[in-house]
């Protein structure tokens, strides 16, 4: 089982790489809150997704893994006291933006790796990760870590993209980052040991339910950890970190095509918005 999972994890897309993702966000962090959140991760969609995390008590200990600029964390602290929330991200530039937000001043903000979390086993009540899994070289390892750090009865909520069915969108998805299929999310959660696994799919209103181009932040997956201790899943050594050496040509061969592919999905979102304005209501687009 472990060797099979490692084989799947090795089939990575250009941005599914720690160092490339770090530099991608070095520049994206400059405009992320102003330009990116309104495309597929609006406040309305964010708050609806976070409802699945069942943030029912202000004293819950919550980990926001891949929290970046703190945009998702702003939704979390509506329900949980900031001093009980930890934001973790590998991007120093994204975290600088989080530290500037007044509502997050009491949160703990640390640099770290989602696939090797610096927290003890049975530590948190909630694990939330929004818009992060698509950059993990080994998504199964990241979900395994989510299981480990949760307390018994704790809930993980992973929010990420969904693989498109339209051929051109599939091409650009594979040229950018990981767009998992619904079945892959379920498999990763089940292998890690989670129970009561639920998957919901939501797209921006102007998509009118269309999924052929995939969704960037519209797949919401939750699972519950029932027993204490580490995940029963055994994996080999971790292979990809932000400190891995990477040749300049190899690095650029990942960063440049990945950046162009990302632009495609921004255009798609605007294209769907225009179609929504033009096509009669009630008609599929």
Automatic annotation (TrEMBL):
PANTHER family documented for this protein: 2-METHYL-6-PHYTYL-1,4-HYDROQUINONE METHYLTRANSFERASE 2, CHLOROPLASTIC (PTHR44516:SF11), 2-METHYL-6-PHYTYL-1,4-HYDROQUINONE METHYLTRANSFERASE, CHLOROPLASTIC (PTHR44516)
Which controlled-vocabulary keywords does the entry list?
Membrane, Methyltransferase, S-adenosyl-L-methionine, Transferase, Transmembrane, Transmembrane helix
CDD domains linked:
AdoMet_MTases (cd02440)
**Domain MPBQ/MBSQ family SAM-binding methyltransferase profile, first and last residues per copy:** 13-222
Segments of this protein annotated with the region SAM motif I: 62-71
Show the segment(s) annotated as SAM motif II. Answer: 107-120
Q: Does the keyword Protein transport apply?
A: no
Q: Which GO terms describe its molecular function?
A: 2-methyl-6-phytyl-1,4-benzoquinone methyltransferase activity
Native organism is Spirodela intermedia
Q: Where are the transmembrane segments?
A: 251-273
Q: What is this protein called?
A: MPBQ/MBSQ family SAM-binding methyltransferase profile domain-containing protein
| Similarity comment | Belongs to the class I-like SAM-binding methyltransferase superfamily. MPBQ/MBSQ MT family.
Give the GO terms filed under biological process for this record. Answer: methylation
Give the span(s) annotated as SAM motif III. 148-161
Q: Which Pfam families match?
A: Methyltransf_11
């Amino acid at each position: 089982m472990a060797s099979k999972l490692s084989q799947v994890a090795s089939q990575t897309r250009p941005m599914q790489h720690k160092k490339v993702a770090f530099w991608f966000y070095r520049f994206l962090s400059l405009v992320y809150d102003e330009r990116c959140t309104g495309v597929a991760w609006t406040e309305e969609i964010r708050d609806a997704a976070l409802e699945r995390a069942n943030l029912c008590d202000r004293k819950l200990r919550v980990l926001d893994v891949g929290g970046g600029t703190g945009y998702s964390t702003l939704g979390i602290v509506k329900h949980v006291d900031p001093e009980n929330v930890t934001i973790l991200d590998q991007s120093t530039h994204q975290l600088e933006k989080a530290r500037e937000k007044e509502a997050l001043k009491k949160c703990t903000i640390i640099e770290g790796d989602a696939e090797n979390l610096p927290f003890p086993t049975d530590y948190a009540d909630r694990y939330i990760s929004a818009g992060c899994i698509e950059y993990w070289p080994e998504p199964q390892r990241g979900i395994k870590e989510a299981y480990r750090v949760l307390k018994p009865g704790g809930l993980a909520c992973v929010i990420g993209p969904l693989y498109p069915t339209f051929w051109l969108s599939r091409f650009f998805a594979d040229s950018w980052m990981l767009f998992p299929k619904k079945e892959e999310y379920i498999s990763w959660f089940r292998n890690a040991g989670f129970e009561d696994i639920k998957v919901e799919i939501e797209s921006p209103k102007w998509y009118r339910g269309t999924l052929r181009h995939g969704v960037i932040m519209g797949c919401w997956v939750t699972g519950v950890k029932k027993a204490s201790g580490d995940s029963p899943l055994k994996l080999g050594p971790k292979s990809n970190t932000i400190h891995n050496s990477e040749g300049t040509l190899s690095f650029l061969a990942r960063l440049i095509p990945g950046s162009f592919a990302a632009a495609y999905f921004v255009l798609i979102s605007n294209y769907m918005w225009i179609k929504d304005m033009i096509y009669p209501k009630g008609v599929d687009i």
